[in-house]
Write a structure and sequence with these properties.
Blueprint lengths: L6 H14 L11 H4 L2 E4 L4 E4 L6 H11 L13 H4 L6 E2 L5 H10 L1 E4 L4 H13 L4 H9 L1
Parallel strand pairs: 2-4
Antiparallel strand pairs: 1-2, 1-3
Pfam families: Sulfotransfer_2 (PF03567)
GO molecular function: sulfotransferase activity
Protein name: Carbohydrate sulfotransferase
Length: 142
């Protein structure tokens, strides 16, 4: 145990469970769509696996500023649509196996998680409540 948040305990529990059940995974077995969720920042040697509805818009905005893709230091000045635009970030699906292996060995890795019920409520509020264009789209669909 390293922190009071239980993060290391959870990591060890996952490893122990996978080992006990003889579960083995290989990065090559993952579908391309999952590798697209792992963003690459070569300058800062960072791999960021984003999870929708877990602050991913703000973290993408931060990465844009860090990588010099936005000329302001105010994170909220970056339009959300721009942070999510295709091709804005390099991702693990675009690199060779050899390059990916080097990155996985040497880069810092980051993923942010959230209570699943909070995430579900956030998605509901974001997609179905309010007057934003995205909310209107989903309100009409349902």
């Amino acid at each position: 145990m390293r922190d009071s948040g239980g993060n290391l305990v959870l990591f060890e529990l996952v490893q122990e469970t996978c080992s006990r059940l003889s579960l083995k995974w290989n990065l090559e077995d993952l579908p391309r769509s999952l590798l697209e969720h792992i963003l690459v920042d070569d300058e800062h040697k960072l791999l960021y696996c984003y999870v929708p509805k877990v602050a991913c818009t703000n973290w993408k905005r931060i990465l844009m500023i860090l990588e010099g893709k936005w000329n302001d230091t105010d994170v909220l000045s970056v339009p959300a649509s721009l942070a999510h635009s295709p091709g804005m970030f390099r991702n693990l699906s675009t690199v060779s196996k050899e390059e990916r292996d080097v990155m996985l060995e040497n880069y810092h890795k980051m993923i942010i998680v959230r209570n699943p019920f909070e995430r579900l409520l956030s998605a509901y509020r974001n997609k179905l409540e309010g007057d934003l264009p995205s909310a209107k789209y989903f309100q009409v669909c349902i």
